[in-house]
Specification:
- By secondary structure, this protein is an alpha/beta fold.
- It is built from nine helices and twelve strands.
- The protein has a five-stranded parallel β-sheet with strand order 2-1-3-4-5, sandwiched between helices. It has a four-stranded antiparallel β-sheet with strand order 6-7-8-9, covered by helices on one side. The protein has a three-stranded antiparallel β-sheet with strand order 10-12-11.
- A hairpin with a 2-residue loop joins strand 8 and strand 9.
- Helix 2 packs parallel to helix 3 and helix 7 crosses helix 9.
- It is elongated.
- The model has no long low-confidence stretch (mean pLDDT 88).
């Protein structure tokens, strides 16, 4: 790995432990963003690009296993390491089934955590092409680049807002699949209240207008569940 190492998302509800782990990994050369619970972690994961996630298991609002499953629904490649006070075999199995790559039981050595992260990232190097595929999407006559918030059509270029781009990216990642409303709300807004649900409907309406130049590209309502992006 290079000296700059990697960008890590750390989700840990114990504030003191979170700061200690963050500081230890920073001293090893990693960039580390610390979130205090699963909902905040999910929102930040959707808004930023991370090379690896370190997730506590027992957290308020959304536990680490549920967070990992949500992360896996939009990114199958990013490595996930679980931190937990539980050492039972059943919990380890649950973690690996949720998409985890490694599992450390508290208390653990910060040196061991850093070494395991190094090993995982060495195995996952060279997947830049996969990452780019998650950033740039071809939708009929449109090209959507979520990095610069640009939706390009032969007749026009449109600059999206951050949240418009986040919603469209989730639709693209789930193309031809039903995308649940609750997942979009939690990943883009960090909550799934009724008020935010109405806001999501407004954003979907805007995206439909932006995509109107190619009738093959449709955002379909799936009643009572969510939305589906179809490209005919």
């Amino acid at each position: 790995m290079s000296d700059t190492k990697a960008n890590i998302l750390l989700v840990e509800d114990d504030q003191n432990l979170g700061f200690v782990i963050q500081d230890a990994l920073k001293r090893k050369g990693y960039a580390v963003h610390l979130c205090r619970d699963g909902k905040e972690g999910l929102k930040y994961f959707n808004e930023h690009s991370y090379d690896l996630c370190v997730l506590d298991v027992m957290m308020p609002h959304k536990d680490g296993f549920s967070l990992a499953e949500d992360i896996r629904s939009v990114n199958e490649q990013v490595p996930i390491v679980f931190l937990t006070a539980k050492s039972q075999t059943e919990d380890r199995i649950t973690g690996f089934k949720a998409g985890g790559d490694d599992y450390l039981t508290k208390p653990f050595s910060h040196e061991e955590l850093a070494l395991r992260i190094d090993a995982i990232l060495r195995r996952t190097q060279g997947k830049g092409d996969d990452k780019r595929k998650r950033d740039v999407f071809e939708l009929g006559d449109y090209t959507f680049d979520q990095r610069d918030l640009n939706l390009k059509h032969p007749t026009e270029d449109r600059k999206l807002t951050r949240k418009e781009a986040d919603v469209l990216r989730l639709l693209c990642l789930h193309q031809d699949q039903v995308l649940p409303r609750e997942l979009v709300l939690n990943m883009v807004w960090g909550d799934d209240t009724y008020f935010l649900g109405r806001s999501l409907d407004v954003f979907i309406s805007r995206l439909r207008k932006y995509l109107k130049h190619d009738p093959r590209v449709q955002i379909v309502n799936v009643h009572g569940v969510g939305f589906k992006l179809q490209v005919g």
